[in-house]
Amino acid sequence: SHSRILAGNDDITQSGQTDSYRLLNKFHMTHRNSADRGFEISSLVNLEKRPHSLSVYPNLFPEIIDGGMLSQHVDLHNISTENSAGLLSAFKVGNFTLHPSAIVNYHHNSLASRLDAICNNLTLDHLDAGIGAEIMFCTRKFHASLYLPLKYRLFRLKNRLDDEITDNSRFRVEPSLNFIYRINSSHNLKAAASLSYMTPSIETLYSGYILTSYRQLSAYDVAGLYEGMNQHYSLGYDFKNILSMSFAGVELDWNRQSPEVLYGSCYDGIVERTISRHTSESGDMLSAKIHASQGFDWRRLKIGAALTYSFYDSPLLVQDEVLRYSGNSLGVEADISLTPFKWLSVSYQGSYSRSATQQKGYERFPWLRTVTNKASLDFTIPGGVTLTTSLYHYYNNFNNGDKSFILLNAEARYTIKRFSFMLSCDNLLNRKSYVYSSLSALTESRAIYNIRPRSILLKIRFRIF
Predict the structure, then answer these.
(1) CA dist 241 to 8, 184, 188, 294, Å?
(2) Distance CA 36, CA 27 (A)
(3) Burial class for 291, CB neighbours closer than 10 Å (0-12, 13-18, 19+)
(4) Which of 92, 260, 423, 432 could form a disulfide with 226 if both were Cys (CB 3.0 to 4.6 A apart)?
(5) Cα–Cα distance, 422 to 418 (Å, whole number)
(6) pLDDT (tens digit, 9 = 90+) per residue, 382-406?
(7) What is the DSSP string of 230-288?
(8) Tens digit of pLDDT for each residue in 304-323?
(9) CB atoms inside a 10 Å sphere around CB 42
(10) Which residues have a Cβ under 8 Å from the Cβ of 403 and sit 6 or more positions away?
């Protein structure tokens, strides 16, 4: 991939190139006999290399790096293998079944960079090895499974610039529980819980600066290796009646993250530096969703709707200070499809969402409201020609000027034997740009994309066999 940035007002130029090479092999075999006994083996081997180069003019970080122009080269390498083997129904008593397994995972990563006189040269080795067991209990109405893996986890970080080696090893148990209760053929209750540990990547362990863009410089000053803990709990209810084509459900989720390290940004005008700090803070996210759909034999009519709500309370690192912020969002979705005649079909999808965030001790930020509408109309005219029209509408109250964006497309398709001819006309209203605004944590961002003007394109496809 190649990238080029020209910031005319500030007379800034940036050019970059990234190459990606990967050799990947997957192997998976399951052997089962008539008594449901057997074994399962899976293996993955990955070799990857990603060289990256970047040059920027002028230098917006003169207090850190000397010179008027910045030139950088970064090399990332990865060698990894993930292997597991297990027995199917190795032990069974009544409604209980035991599935033992063993895993061996190894990852070797290296990062080397040079930004003028600033260098990085790191290797990170990660070993996961252990045994696990899945215990299942099944009856006509109940299905429960508990997976208990016991792992020995080893991290080794080596800074080859000064031959400094940091080790971190420990035993970890990452259990997961799933439960389903079948009330009857139409109603189900389900619950799940899991505990896992987040592991660092080599991209967040280097201490020498790396240039991300002409205005962003990244380096991490947290010494050593770290982990974070993630807890997830869910509860749900499903209803389905295939004969009446009725479906509905309710889902509740709670996710808690306890990172040992926070990442954030420090701003000086448009210049941004990535920073990190140790922390004992934790973040919570609660979400709920209700959805339903109904199908009808009449004209193949289908109607669906969904309502979602989420609330989160999390820590944030800004300008070397740990802040807490909270936010909530509400979303409504609806869709409908109809085929009134064999030669005509109509579909519509719409959504409305609003979200806002609030720093602890301060007033809530303004609501961000977005509306999206998508509609399509397909019909076939005599002669076997299919005409398709589509409409996309997007509204965002944070956008400047015209807050709505409308895109209209049309296409004609004709197929004869193995050949398909498509004549499409895109962007019939000849819109010049697409503006998208978003709200993340306490940061509002806006992106403007120049899009292709009105265009007509003839496409021909054919099948060889």
Answers:
(1) 60, 11, 12, 10
(2) 22
(3) middle
(4) 260
(5) 13
(6) 888 999 999 999 999 998 888 999 9
(7) EEEEEEEEEEEETTTTEEEEEEEEEEEEEESEEEEEEEETTEEEEEEEE----EEEEEE
(8) 999 999 999 999 888 888 88
(9) 15
(10) 395, 396, 397
DSSP letter for each residue of 186-205: SEEEEEEEEEEEE---GGG-
pLDDT tens column, 78-107: 999 999 999 887 788 888 989 999 999 999
Mean pLDDT of the chain: 91
Structure-block tokens of residue 258: 């306890």
- Distance between CA 249 and CA 243 in Å, rounded? 17
Position 222 pLDDT exceeds 70:
no
| Residue listed under structure tokens 């009808």 | 296
Contact between 429 and 406 under an 8 Å Cβ cutoff? The reply is yes
Q: Give the pLDDT band of residue 355 (cuts 50, 70, 90).
A: very high
β-bridge pairing 246-259 and 210-213: unpaired
39 contact partners, CB below 8 Å, separation of at least 6: 30, 31, 85, 86, 87, 88
Q: List, in sequence order, every residue forming a beta bridge with 278; answer none if it has no partner.
A: 261
Distance CA 351, CA 307 (A): 10
275 phi/psi in degrees, rounded to 5: -130, 165
Tokens of 337: 């499809």
Place of tokens 């498509």: 422
CB 148 within 8 A of CB 130: no
Quote the CA–CA distance of 312 and 254 in Å, as a whole number. 10
Which residues share a beta bridge with 46? 24, 80
Q: What's the CA gap between 198 and 227, in Å, rounded? A: 6
pLDDT tens readout for residues 405-425? 999 999 999 998 889 999 999
User: Please, are residues 337 and 347 in contact by the beta-carbon 8 Å criterion?
Assistant: yes
Bigger pLDDT: 124 vs 225: 124
Q: What span, in angstroms and rounded, lies between the C-alpha atoms of 252 and 235?
A: 5
DSSP percent split of the chain into helix, strand, coil, nearest 5: 0, 75, 25
Q: Are 123 and 109 in contact (CB under 8 A)?
A: yes
Mean pLDDT of the 114-126 span: 92
